[in-house]
Amino acid sequence: xxxxxxxxxxxxxxxxxxLVYSTNRLLQNNSGRGNQTIKTRSGCGDESEIDCWAVVIxxxxxxxxxxxxxxxxxxxxxxxxxxxxxxxCNSTQIDDQNKxxxxxATLNLSVNPCENFYRYACDRYIxxNRLLQNYTHWSPFDEILKxxxxxxxxxxxxxxxxxxxxxxxNCSHPTKNISLCKLRQFYDSCINLxxxxxxxxxxxxxxxxxxxxxxxxxxxxxxxxxxxxxVKKQSPTKHFHRILTLSMKWNxxxxxxxxxxxxxxxSSREILQIHPPKLEFFNLTYxxxxxxIQVYRNYLRQVWQHLQSxxxxxxxxxDLDDIIQIEQTIVKLMNNEKKKIQRIPIIKIQxxxxxxxxxxxxxxxxxxxxxxxxxxVEIYNEDYFRNMCKLIEAIDKHAFSNxxxxxxxxxxxxxxxxxxxxxxxxxxxxxxxxxKSIQPRWKMCIKWSDENFGVITSSLFVQANQVKLEKIKMVxxxxxxxxxxxxxxxxxxxxLGARLKGEMLTKIHGxxxxxxxxxWILNDTGLLNQYSEVRVKQDCFFENIMNVKAFNFKAKLSTxxxxxxxxxxxxxxxxxxxxxxxxxxNSIAVPLGLLQKxxxxxxxxxxxxxxxxxxxxxxxxxxxxxxxxxxxHDRYGNxxxxxxxxxxxxxxxxIQCFTNQYSSYKLDEKHMNGNLTVSENIAxxxxxxxxxxxxxxxxxxxxxxxxxxAEKNDFTRKQLFFIHYAQSMCRTSLLNxxxxxxxxxxxxxxxxxxxxxxSNLHEFADVFDCQANSPMNPKDKCLLL
Length: 785
Prior knowledge:
- The structure is a single chain.
- By secondary structure, this protein is mainly α.
- Among the domains are: 103-130 and 467-517 and 570-767, 3-Layer(aba) Sandwich (Collagenase (Catalytic Domain)), CATH 3.40.390; 201-415, Orthogonal Bundle (Neutral endopeptidase, domain 2), CATH 1.10.1380.
- Helix content is 55%, strand content 5%.
- It has 33 helices and eleven strands.
- The strands form four sheets. It has a four-stranded mixed β-sheet. Strands 6-8-7 form a three-stranded mixed β-sheet, with helices on one face. A two-stranded antiparallel sheet has the order 1-11.
- Helix 12 (290-311) runs antiparallel to helix 18.
- The longest helix has 41 residues, at 49-89.
């Protein structure tokens, strides 16, 4: 073998060596045969013809395989886009039966959009979403919340003993999943109506024993003794102190109510507020209505008679008139004293305003921490405190005990047996004039789980959602776009003075955003196990709710005067269907629970649906930083004064425009309260303008989005924006519910939220070609910036 052949054998694959060797042999055998020569072709360099074709065939095979893979991937992507374009892009309003497949199906084309755009956009939605029995309202936001709760429920039910590494009946032994185990126990005890109904009102016995004075129990003592209760005599002063402490521990509204929130003067810490209580009637004018007072008296009597029949004892009937009279007196004190939040050291309350109560001792016994005498708290006002303490001195001790017992019983009835819950529901229906909205039991249990184990339910919700990072990034993009536009509007506003404009710009720049969920919700073991000390039993729902409420209130109370851990807290539960601006932190929260269809979807990328629904919500929350309350806080959330007299007059006149506009709207011939809703109305109108401007800027991107064709239909893209906005606000409601809702709710009814904000927008009138002075295009339009 010559040197060339040895080299080829070493460097080439075995098959290639054989081909070359055979060719060389042919050349050698034909050498010297005259004119008979065999010529090699050099098209592949030094390779033989056979070697060349083998390489060509191999390359062709690779190319064919590569093309097949590319075509397969392309067809898969096309099918995926077609599928999701048809289901997600055209379906921005979908009811539970999936009957509505595109936005035009929900329009009432017989209504002129320039006359009443809410009816134009929402009539069909209302027709297709008739209220179920015992429901007072329904909207796309209710659809979202129902879906979120179902996801949380399934996550809780998936907490099996195997996953928990613990028996659900006993969470006491060490386990890293102890809080999850207790959440599962809490839910199981709540959903078990059979046990709850069998126990009926018996769980209240221990509570009443603790609250009633010894010499006022009469027939109840024999009943209590059967259940192992021990009665101790106490002096009237000690007993008063005890029942006040217990009611506050359970956060029962009696004479006062405790609220812990971020300090308005120093947003880096928490402060305690002491408020007047929330009483049985949400509308305080009802206490002057003899008819409603009689309904209340009947309700009191029915509940007490039910307790007597359940306990099989002749408990003396409470003096119902005493209870009602105490509540009426509290209401008069609240109405007589103008609300004026005052800051005062707690020792001053104890020594000068209300010496009847040892406030420091009460707080220390609940929070189990040392309370400094110089600790500042916020109170309703000093006169209310003084008069309330005079009332304490004047009230008969037995009457006061009855009052506290009743307030406690009434607060805890929702967690008791079906007959007691029905008594309360019937009372609410009789007072309000419409049936109380009764939720399915599973939904109530998830609601209570969410309220009391919020960190755990939020963590489960995030895990079950399988969140895509693109979703969070898209929302952050919308927030940043609208925030930038708000900065531009402030810069361009001619009526703002230089100082105010500078303060506003600084504040807007400083607004922080909480989008989706915090990362620690998935991996902070210490935080997720914060409920390890809560006592929970699988078959004792009433005891569980009492324990967890006391635990949570104690935890909140222990944060007083301590630094606020903004990075370790969120403003709202992650499964919530709402967004929020918190002025004390100058921050907005847009939780994952809100980022669901039909309000938001990745498949609405840069489309009218995302900007019209979610974008207006984001704009709304950002505008709260400059509304009549937000304007009083700086970039850190601390209270300050920005406005000089001239600018203040201009600001007030602009606010008054919104007040007058919404006060002119009537529901069942009743004018709305524009003063009550002015901050929300401003946020609606100005937030909509910001979202629409952001959408206009993104129209070119929308043309190239996967859902671009889905938005063409018979409308322009700008028209679709306003249709999407109105349809996100569609709501089916009982009229009486709306009328009662309006008395205390800070938001206007949805019909006026849509009509009011759109009629303030010139662009809406242009897009739908509304004539001047038509209902949706009035001559005078309200604007803040």
